[in-house]
């Protein structure tokens, strides 16, 4: 089962909660749920995605809005780890490219630590060792449709080439990150938006354009 915009959002899957009280979509009833999915080795997550969601959290946490963070890993498995997530949340320590790029853009303090705290609950995505023999057609097509909505209208040569590329990509993955795949995310940062009825309303990849406006619209529904 894959999440689909306009339908009931499935519960996400995590390996452990590092910060805050464990929860899930079916627990946060009658709440607007914003889930920020990031990687610890993702500079853009800390420059764009997370600050945008923190702003929404601070402004609307008393208006029925729940904000959650899920750290995932679809690459750099040696850096996007539970241990590095714990360092981030407990001591504001950042690693890898995040440390390098944030230092250049003045997001780190004199001790080379992140200047701001993540104030909402954060969990680690569930990682499962990838069995490349289990790549079925549904998974391939779900990945394709998420990236190329008009795939069915393309010619056969194009379709076959895309399918071949997707199979090669999926076979190269060391792990399946369950929440990342469940919501068919394209990368990080990604923001998942769920309304008070538990319906998946949107998935934003990138900087979270107009996130506050979307949240305000949901509050006023």
Characterise the protein shown here:
With 221 residues, the chain is of the alpha/beta class. It has two domains: 14-126 and 185-219, 3-Layer(aba) Sandwich (Glutaredoxin); 131-172, no CATH class. 36% of the residues lie in helices and 19% in strands. It starts with 13 loop residues before the first strand and ends with a helix.
Write the topology of this structure.
Blueprint: E1 14-19, E2 32-38, H1 43-60, E3 65-71, H2 82-91, H3 96-104, E4 122-125, E5 127-129, H4 137-147, H5 156-172, E6 175-177, H6 178-182, E7 190-194, E8 200-205, H7 211-219
Parallel strand pairs: 2-3, 3-4
Antiparallel strand pairs: 1-4, 2-7, 5-6, 7-8
Output mean pLDDT.
92
The number of domains: 2
Per CATH, the superfamily of the largest domain is Glutaredoxin
- CATH class of the largest domain, named Alpha Beta
Q: Over all CA atoms, what is the radius of gyration?
A: 18 Å
Low-confidence stretches: none
Give the name of the CATH architecture of the largest domain: 3-Layer(aba) Sandwich
Offer a few descriptive terms.
single chain, 221 residues, alpha/beta, 2 domains, six-stranded mixed β-sheet
Concise summary:
With 221 residues, the chain is α/β, with parallel strands linked by helices. It is built from seven helices and eight strands, in the order E-E-H-E-H-H-E-E-H-H-E-H-E-E-H.
